[in-house]
Write a structure and sequence with these properties.
single chain; alpha/beta; Glucose Oxidase, domain 1; 2 domains; 7-stranded mixed barrel; 4-stranded mixed β-sheet; GATASE; ATP-binding; glutamine amidotransferase; ATP binding; EC 6.3.5.5
């Protein structure tokens, strides 16, 4: 099925739909990574954004659930040059298209993502929409689109404790959209990790009395 990527400057790029059905609006961003698309898709830092890969072929080795950086996908949409229909990997759990359907991610393929990347690098940050009918796009709404409540949308709602085999230190981790690899790395360094929601008051951290405090990565404008 035909699908269109519409930029806020009026440019329209025709491609094909894959993943979940529907339309998506978000801030268009790009990544130049040749591998690691599972980690990219599941990184909470991309909340509200449409991810675009410059590497032309994505999905070659499928999706491995163990490689996910969160339990879901926070990105608004996904744009690739082409995606692999027959991934080959002994660790593969599911292919990219099926994973996107499972997680409700709207995708578009069949566009020149490198040319698109050059365009947005020249023009600056732009909002975009993945739609079935570009004639119905409200450009006023598209230009004024802003990602809202990014951190609160991806932060954990409760405290979680992660124990290494041998704990030498305790780290309080403020979850602003933390990737699982942050926790894995801390555990590998014998740190007991207490992950707390983004709005946790300072007094609670004092009560924990950790050896260290870490502020995680996360989505949104740092100025906010």
């Amino acid at each position: 099925m035909d699908k269109y990527l519409v930029l806020e400057n009026g440019n329209v790029y025709k491609g094909k739909a894959f993943g979940a059905e529907g339309d998506a609006t978000g801030e268009l961003v790009f990544t130049t990574g040749m591998v690691g698309y599972t980690e990219t898709l599941t990184d909470p830092s991309y909340y509200g954004q449409i991810i675009m890969h410059t590497f032309p072929e994505i999905g070659n080795y499928g999706i491995m659930y163990d490689d996910m950086e969160s339990d879901g996908v926070a990105a608004a949409g996904y744009v690739v040059g082409n995606y692999c229909l027959t991934p080959s990997n002994f660790r593969k759990d599911i292919d990219l298209d099926a994973f996107m359907k499972e997680k409700g991610v709207i995708g578009l393929y069949g566009v020149d993502t490198r040319a698109l990347t050059a365009a947005i690098r020249s023009a600056g940050v732009m909002n975009a929409a993945i739609v079935s009918d570009p004639e119905k796009v409200d450009f006023g709404k598209l230009r004024s689109f802003k990602i809202q409540n990014a951190v609160s949308s991806v932060s954990s709602k409760t405290e979680e404790i992660y124990e290494p085999e041998t704990a030498k230190f305790t780290v309080a981790l403020y979850d602003y959209g933390a990737k699982k690899n942050i926790i894995r790395t801390l555990l590998a360094h014998n740190c007991r990790v207490i992950s707390v929601p983004s709005d946790t008051p300072v007094q609670r951290i004092k009560d924990i009395d950790p050896d260290g405090i870490m502020l995680s990565n996360g989505p949104g404008n740092p100025a906010e």
